[in-house]
Amino acid sequence: MAGLALGLGTAQAQDTPPDPARAAGIAVPATVQRPALRRAVLRRSVARRPVRRPAAPGFGGADSAAQAADTLGQTATPPTVAAGVYDLGNGLSLLMNYTGQAAANPVGGIRQGSAYAGQLFFGLDGDLNRIAGLQGGSFHVAVTNRHGRNLADDRIGNNTSVQEIFGGGQTTRLTLLSYQQKLFDDRVDIEVGRLVANIAFLNSPLYCNFQSNSACGNPTFVFKTSNFTFWPVSSWGAHAKAWLTDRVFFHAGIYEVNPRHQQPGDNGLDFATKGATGAIMPFELGYSTTFTNDVLPRNYGIGGYVDRSDYADPVLDATGRAALFTGAGAATRFGRSGVYARFDQMVWRPDPTAPQGLSVFGVAMKGTSGRQIEDYFLELGAVQTGTFAGRPYDTVGFVINTQKFSSLGLANIRLARAAQGLGSGDVPTQQVMMELNYGIQVTPAIRVTPNLQYILNPDQTRFPFRPKAIPDAFVVGAKLSVDLFTLAGLAGGPGL
What we know:
Porin; 9 helices; porin activity
């Protein structure tokens, strides 16, 4: 019972000042910090002590199953504190948590209503140095169960969800099964196995401070313009990160694209490549400083992706006519690509020994080849960790982004309007999504994040024959995160 009380201690979670020896900066997995500062994810520690994230900000690149969940905002911690894991003391550590997201649109959309979606996560990480004496080796396993409904599908009508946790098949599946090897004093980091691209590339712990799928787990543009693989749908893949200096890295990967794994009922246990249509290859060159060498750490990156796989033509069938009218199905195309630039930067940190402060981030993306439905994507956001006296782990965040649709992306709407004798001059060319939220650290194990979202010009690409634009939507949401081992007193959490 004492352990349970420790896990539920609200006052301790908020009123105890952060221990400078444990305080982490803007949260990142170990793979983004400079090699001289990198530490093994699985520490020799007592079971109740949380494994703290390295004291460095960064662009993600999950170094464990636990960090994958953390980077995707699926743990009960703010962006500055790592989730508590249950260290078994033998090289194995466990993380189990539940994430639920509710949303309702009292105004706007096709019709009003509400929806709820959730995920149960179990992760296992093994340090092979401790288990078998294999220096730099580790393995990672994650299993997820997703369930619920999507408000965007059911009520709003647009194609970008306001509940990030929805998607990838509402089922139980093996989401991660990988082997990782670090070499040359951790200057080279390689991972192979059943992977997803979006926990290694184009992410940041700041993005999933938000519930909107336009920002979390990755900028939505990459999914609209490529077959970028996403959590929880794993496929064969590999990626490697090389540190060129203690601040500059190059990261590249390759991932199987297999639409069969996205079918309803897929459980992630089919390792065959039957059905694969190609591969996607993301890459990034980045600059990253840490709390050790920078009072206000910063991260800048340029990168892109080459998608050498099949995709459906947005307009035409195989005969070159509009598939919207022929009903023959879209023509199959091959190959797309895109580029991006992004940053995050801590701009205010009142106490240089603590993780509290204000960070800003931004993303710009553009397609470079293929028949793409969007021209570009722009995003800006900010997250403040530590809000009021006695609330060091509460956060307040705001993000806004815009998706600029291409002429191909709007072609079906315009064709449908013309067929009905209607004009298409009022078809919006941009969808703007924004979110304001406040994260409440209720206890070390429980975090609740109420949020307000607004969608300006919800796209109607799923409803091209709708005679008028979908009304702007106002969304009220709430996210619940529970770290179950912390709740049971077996792992640490914020303030412990």
